[in-house]
Amino acid sequence: MEGFINFLKPPGMTSHDAVGLVRRVLHEKHVGHAGTLDPGAAGVLPIAVGKAARLIEYLDNVSKSYRAEMLLGVETDSGDDTGKVTEWAEDFEMPDIQKVESVFRDFTGNIAQVPPAHSAIKINGRRACDLLRQGIKVDIPSRRVEIHSLRLLEKDDTKRTLLFDVDCSKGTYIRSLCQDMGQALGIPSTMSFLVRTAVGKFQLSEAVSVEELKELGEGVLLNPEEYIGHIRRYNINPKRRNAFCNGLSSDDRSFDGGSCSQDKIILRVYAQNEFLGIGHYDRKNKTIVPDKVLAVNS
């Protein structure tokens, strides 16, 4: 039993809980997930089962999409509406659409972002949220993330909310984005709703619910090859198939690295259309090196 699951995580369930559910339903211990979702958030959570769990790390670099609601007038220590209120603004004027869209444009592209302290981000090997619970002050450095697009869907002056869609790179925290955009508007803000609508090729419209998982069982498993298509394909000499499956490198002096200047180029390796696993091209030694072999030796 192996494959990916496009799981629809409901609010209130942790990503770890989702993995435990899949283990119980499918009776398979080798299960992992990509792209942790906060317990209060819902949406797409890719889960890998069996040998496919070895491929989960290759989903880390794909883009993600979210639909989020931003509540103006309130800021919390966690960045969402479950946290402790740290700032409150009662009398303020809701910004007009032109101002909101101007701020959205300013936050589109490569930006600096400080992840929220109430998160699973590691500080010296320990999760920031765990340190906070122990009363240890957390200082998280900023990092660069890519906001591919921001689209305003609705501005509700009565509820004092902005509903928007965002496409972004891995490592982007929508809670931090809401707080930062609120500061740019001059109004304390927090995230009041979040649903992840896509992780790479995993789409919300195709995600399976808890009930569907229990009903269909292994029928929900997807072919993992279809979801790692962002990795370059490489066709190895069929005579080197068994060598690759045995963990042996293969020379390739004619490999075209294209515009990529990296010394290590990750590859999906095939032999006559049979998916063997993940390898990489070692530019220095001009060899194809196996990393994660899924096929068995013949």
Would you mind describing this structure in some detail?
The protein has 298 residues and is of the alpha+beta class. It has three domains: 3-62 and 200-226, 2-Layer Sandwich (Pseudouridine synthase); 67-194, Pseudouridine synthase; 231-293, PUA domain (Archaeosine Trna-guanine Transglycosylase, Chain: A, domain 4), CATH 2.30.130.10. It is built from six helices and 18 strands. It has helices spanning 15-26, 97-106, 128-133, 174-185, 210-216, 241-245; strands spanning 3-9, 31-33, 42-49, 64-72, 74-76, 85-88, 109-113, 122-123, 126-127, 143-156, 161-168, 189-199, 202-203, 232-235, 250-251, 264-271, 274-282, 287-293. The strands form four sheets. Strands 1, 2, 3, 4, 7, 10, 11, 12 and 13 form a nine-stranded mixed beta sheet that branches. Strands 14-16-17-18-15 form a five-stranded mixed beta sheet. Strands 5-6 form a two-stranded antiparallel sheet. Strand 12 and strand 13 (202-203) form a beta hairpin. It is globular. The protein starts with a strand and ends in a 5-residue tail after the last strand. The mean pLDDT is 90.
Question: Key terms for this structure?
Answer:
alpha+beta; 3 domains; five-stranded mixed beta sheet; 298 residues; Pseudouridine synthase; nine-stranded mixed beta sheet; Archaeosine Trna-guanine Transglycosylase, Chain: A, domain 4
